[in-house]
Amino acid sequence: MKHHALRAQALRVGAASLAMAMIAGAGAAQAATATATMSVSASIGGTCTVGGATMSFGSYASTTASTANGSIQVTCSNGTNATVVLNQGANNNRAPSYATRALNNGTNYLGYDIYTDNAFGTIWNTAAPQPITSTGAPITLTAYGRIPSGQNPATGSYNDTVTITVNF
Contact at 8 Å (CB) between 74 and 132? Predict the structure, then answer.
């Protein structure tokens, strides 16, 4: 009988273990998952900055044209397409027989223009902006200035201010 009692106890323990395993398995089978997606985004707006430039012709003699150049530095965010425009300056058309721009000394004017190339072929203005496509690194554009010969204004120091605009 002892043997029979041990066997019955072993069967009960085995049945209990099996029942617990089934419960544990049933619990794992009841666990479920749900998924969804999360939309993540960012935007980068185009931005540009422009550094002012200087151009100095030095001393002008009416017998020869004077030339000078200046560097304009533009930095835009990567991939930005932009155009760089120079206005006609503060003395627009004050010396029309010589150029579209003019340096002034009081009421005296000295005609000049700023060009996009060193051959002085295209005047840099709103009608001929300079296009750029930025990589995010600074871009240097050269402005080429020319004062035509033959002008005979009074002695003195002549100045003008030209506005640089970046459209993007």
Answer: yes
